[in-house]
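quick one, 208 residues, struct below
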Amino acid sequence: MSYICKVLLVFLMLVPINAAQAEIVLGFSNDGGASFSTEFEMGSGDISTFQLYLLDTTDNADLRDHGLFSFGLIGALNDEAIGQVSNPMIAPVFDDQDDASFGNTIEWNAALDDNFDNPPTGDTILLGSFDFTALAGGTSDFLFRDSSTTFEDWVTINAEVLDDEIFGARPEHGFSVTVTSVPEPGSLILSLLGTGAFALRRNRHLVL
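---
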């Protein structure tokens, strides 16, 4: 095999791997960005704060060197019975904010104004956060998409448009929440009393 053929073969083998691994996506965390996941578990009655990030694993240095200027997204909880969203907040660095969130739907459009000279940079950029109160048992997806399919709103400081790179191949990014029902204190006490009574009757039967 010639040298050129070998180089071409290696190139064809590596390109799909790199393309699959390197991407710009929405990331989800409930520990301030220390870790990211697409699956979270909660008990009914628990309250957790979720953070939304823009994660860049590509070789493009625009976000790292220049930063994010603007973004727009809409997110909705598929099964509203399992919980309630509250306190949606766009990251303060985006000081030109339009927060149209309502109920279990989040709608954020934001850009830099006075902070134009101090944009958020890096491989991990915080977009905002919201609280989620788990109510009923079950599992539901929380899916996010571009707020506009016609307007370019994901833009870097140096005017690079990221909409297609983020949402072109994957129109929706999201995570699932599984809520485990926790027995009410009264129900738990009754259950314990019933277990104790059964054990007492069983012991008396054995003694007789």
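Confidence is low (pLDDT under 50) at residues 3-20.
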